[in-house]
Every structure is written in C-alpha cells, then in structure tokens.
Amino acid sequence: MTSTLDVLARIRARTPAGEPTGERCEMCADPMGGEHQHVVNIAGRQLMCVCRACYLLFTDTSANLRYRAVPDRFLSLPDFGLGRREWEALQIPVGVAFFFRNSALERTVAFYPGPAGATESELDIATWAAVSRDPRVGLLADDVEALLVRLPDDTDEPACFLVPIDACYEFVGGLRLLWRGFDGGAQARDFIDGFFAGVAERSVVRLP
Fold first, then answer.
1. Per-residue confidence at 22, pLDDT binned at 50, 70, 90?
2. Edge-to-edge strand list for the sheet holding 159-164
3. Fewer CB atoms near the end CB (10 Å): N or C, the chain?
4. Could you give the 3-state DSSP secondary structure of residue 149?
5. Which residues are CB-contacts of 79 (< 8 A; sequence separation ≥ 6)?
C-alpha cells in the first residue's frame, strides 16, 4: 500500500532543479502562484504553505497523520456562553483571544495578540470546562480550527467565531505590525474592527 510519505517522495523526485525561485510549496517545492493553502505540522506546531495537490493528501480527518489540512469554513456563534465574568476568570489581559485543541497536548490552549505576536495564556481549566459546555465547541477540528473571541470594553456580549487556525495567525501577524504602546493604539483598533467585520461577512451563523 502506498503511503502519503511515498507520494511526497515521488513528487519531490520529479521536481526539476535549477528553476527560478519564487513562492513554492513547502512539501514538494512546486511553484504555487498567488493562492495557496496551509497544513499544520502537528508535532512542530507549524503552519506550512502548500500547493493544492499536497493539501489534499491531508484532508482525511479520520486518519492519524503528522500533518493536517486547514479547512476554510467560517461560522458565527451567537449567544456563546463567554461573558465578562468568564473572560476575567480566564485572566486574558486583552479583549481578543483564540482557543483551539492541541492534540499533542490533549487539551485546549489559548492565545492572545500583542506587540510580540501570539502569547499563550495560562488557561484556567475549571473556567474553560464551564465555557466549553456550549455544544458548538465540539465542532472545532483539533489543531486546525479555533474559537476566535472578541469582548469589547463597552459590552458583555462577545463576538465568537469558528475560524481556520491560519486566519488567527494572519490576524495576530497583521496586528503585531501596527501595535503601538500599551493598548495597541488607534491603528491596531481599526485593524481589529476591520478584521472582525471581514470574518463576520464570511461566516455562516450556527445557532446553539
């Protein structure tokens, strides 16, 4: 039976040497053009930019693979049970964070953005257990999908979305470039507004 690694080895072997450099698949080294997709290296916690052919090798969610394809679904989760009290109990110092289940650690982890990029939060397990009673938490695919949450200062109602994990890192990376001072500054706040507006526009509403 031919394994996924055998297929990748044959793809690499067919790749001509000495071609002009450019944006290439991180698995087979083929040119990717402008658009590409991502897979997650589970053990290394790395996003890899890959071509469509390599991406499709890792879309089987039931297979025990070293890599997993990042899906492209966006869901809006209204009335999610994560209000001001729960947020403060989680001890996240800013009003935005994303949560995903790390299969290597066999637990949910939380990250929030800041001037240094994505910072891991010490997730309070008991508080998260209360929050995760919302059945929609079970929709998250391990390692490749995240719960992206924003809790603005002027409301107790969070904006909650299920998003691809690469969208979270895109968000954190873009915000890092604009962050100024302690709270990020006006440009950072405008970026957050625009990003969440874009996520909301792409999302399908999923009720409890």
1. low
2. 117-121, 107-114, 96-102, 145-150, 159-164, 75-76, 204-205
3. N
4. strand
5. 207, 208
Compute the 3-state secondary structure of the chain and give helix, strand, coil in percent, each to the nearest 5: 30, 25, 45
Pairing between β-strand 204-205 and β-strand 75-76 as defined by DSSP bridges: parallel
Q: What is the pTM of this model?
A: 0.85
Nearest to 141 by CA among 169, 108, 116, 111: 108
- Contact, 160 vs 148, CB < 8 A? yes
Of 18-27, 63-72, 199-208, where does mean pLDDT reach its minimum? 18-27
Is the Cβ–Cβ distance between 177 and 113 less than 8 Å? no
Q: Per the structure block, which two tokens stand in for 131?
A: 């929050």
First to last CA, the chain: 43
Residues 61/143, Cβ–Cβ less than 8 Å: no
Per-residue pLDDT tens over the stretch 50-67: 999 999 999 998 888 899
67, 58 contact by CB (below 8 A): yes
